[in-house]
Amino acid sequence: MAAADREANRGGGTVITALLIAAGGGVGAALRLALNGTVHRRVRPEYPIAMTIINLVGSFALGFITGLAGGRVVPESWALVLGVGLVGGFTAFSTTSFQTLRLVQERRWWMAVVNSFGMLVVAVIFAGVGLWIGRIL
Fold this sequence. Notes:
By secondary structure, the chain is mainly alpha-helical. It has one domain. Helix content is 82%, strand content 0%. It has helices at 3-9, 15-42, 49-70, 76-90, 93-105, 109-136. The chain starts with a helix and ends with a helix.
């Protein structure tokens, strides 16, 4: 195991790992912006479907990466870069929270419930499926 991997496993990480996580976060945020724009150009939904897609894909990806890391397919340091950096930058829980608040302000109660609780339940399922697939590889 490389020194960077040993350090990352202790939770401290290295400067290089931290920089890679930051870069991954930037890439993830750019991917979120691109996907959000693409969805909204094609669909004008009443429900914030783009953030739902982003959060579900991110939940699956984080579960998958965690499963791969647990099975030693991906080194822990790369799991940090991909999970914390790329997926962390890609997902948008704070955006989803704000969108739920906006739905409440607009008195669109059912949409607000689906956006908050429904997404949480489905995202946990997606994370579990990703974890399961990552572990069996």
